[in-house]
Structure formats: structure tokens, C-alpha cells
């Protein structure tokens, strides 16, 4: 993980609040989540930034070095972002719509719906590994809409300028080498899978790894993950028989890998659409969500493992929420 501006904001928020509990409330995070993020930041910076005790969070000597620099940097960053957004709005064609995605099968449907609803608009896209920077981009006006995602108990924090609308919630599936013995069954127990070598994506600010870890802990173990990979590299590691992993339910099987549901579905992922309240898609929100939900159902049908799972669980996901969004929690 590289040090990012949001990490500096976290450090400053803790110092200003004087405790992780109060800082978590101001940042709209859970206290355990903020503690985990602070540990990652401290690991990047090479030492403890705060002494945490009954007196609250008190900066260490390293913290006294870091905090003044963070406080000096952030106003300049905020000014730069504000000026560039304002300049971009002044110099941008009114018909330009910027979309983002955090690696989900919904971006194409969002592009198609946007082009149909706003004919002649220039549509551009930006993809990130984590939804957190995309949400920041939406809030700052650098994007008009985005495909985001979160997990139970680790939902995206609300932003005043952004509408967040759940589209679908789906189980997380296991990704296995096709020759793996566990791939012979219709489902895989997490307790059996946990003992394998794993390949996992780089931990990011969306707290997915934190959520996975909390579920893994119910088995009494954490996976041994010698391989950090994502995208095609992750698939290649699994296909070579070196590791197992997890994937979205709509992942399409390719030769050499097998997608299998986890027994009793202990892990879930929610697809979320976000758009600017004052943006060009605000007046079309219900239509966009409906179009994207329809595309999601098509993706479900095209993913054999998920299609089989849905036939065995016809009650999930069910239609509910705004514009017929799909949810199971």
C-alpha cells in the first residue's frame, strides 16, 4: 500500500479528536476499522504515530514529526483539487460525463444507459481497484457516476453530494484450480478451503480484506496467503494450481479454473451505484438503476455457477429497494 492523501486525513482526524473512538465517529467509520487502518499507516511510516491509552490518542515522537507536515500538505491538496475541479467545469463540454468502476460487471450497462439517456454525450471511464477513491472523486465532482461496492457491516460512508443506491447483493464464491479435489463438489466449505495456500488482492481502503478476515476468524484460522495478485495475474496463479482465492459470483469460468459457491454463503458483496446529486444523471436515477439491474440479471444467467446457485436459492436475491434494486440483506 502507498501512502495516500486520505491516510493523512485519518492521522489528522485522530489527532484533532484525541481518541480513535471520536475520530471514527467523525470519519463515519467503525472504531475497529479505523484502528486497522491506523496500523497499516503506521506500518508504512515505520512506527507508532500515537500512544493509545486511557488518556486517548497522544502523538509519539514520530507522530510529532508527521502531523505538522500532514497539516501543512492538506490545505494545498484541497486547494489544488478545488481549483482543478472548477477549471475543469469551466473548460469542459457540457455533454461530457465521467464514469468510474471498482471492478464489477455493471460498468458496461451504466455506459449504455448513460448514452441512451443523454444522447450525444461524451462518456469517459476510470477504473480503480478500490471504491474508496471513486467515492472521493464523486464527492469532489471529478466523476458524475460510478459503480461501487461494499460488504455487510462495512458499508460505504454517506457523502452529502452523492446518492448511493444498492443494485444487487450476491454471495462471494471460491476460485479454484479446475483439477483441485474441492472443485469436484457443488459447494466448498470455507473450513476446508482455509487450509490451502491463497492468492489475495492487495489490501485497499474499501475494508474488504478486513471483512474477509472477520469471517475467516470464525473458522479459527486465517489463510496462508503467500501470493498477492489480482486480475489476470490472480487467475494465472490459481490456474497453475499454486493457490485458491475468492471471486464475485458473476465471474465467468475460464479454462483451468473452477468457480464454486461457499457452503451456506458466509461472505457477501453488494454492488452500489453512486451519482452526483447535482449531476446530469440525477434526474434519471431510477431509470439508470433499473437498466443496470437488468444487465446484472443477464450477467447472473451467463455465469454457470451463479445460475445454478440461484436456481437452488430462488428467494435470493429478491427485488426490493429503489427502482427494483436486488438485495439479500
From TrEMBL:
MF terms in GO: DNA binding; DNA-binding transcription factor activity
Family statement: Belongs to the LysR transcriptional regulatory family.
InterPro entries for this protein: LysR_HTH_N, LysR_subst-bd, WH-like_DNA-bd_sf, WH_DNA-bd_sf
Recorded GO CC terms: protein-DNA complex
Classification lineage: Bacteria, Bacillati, Actinomycetota, Actinomycetes, Kitasatosporales
HTH lysR-type domain residues: 1-60
Gene3D superfamilies: Periplasmic binding protein-like II, Winged helix-like DNA-binding domain superfamily/Winged helix DNA-binding domain
Protein name: LysR family transcriptional regulator
Keywords: DNA-binding, Transcription, Transcription regulation
UniProt superkingdom: Bacteria
Pfam families in the record: HTH_1 (PF00126), LysR_substrate (PF03466)
Native species: Streptomyces filipinensis
PROSITE patterns: HTH_LYSR
Keyword Transcription regulation belongs to the record: yes
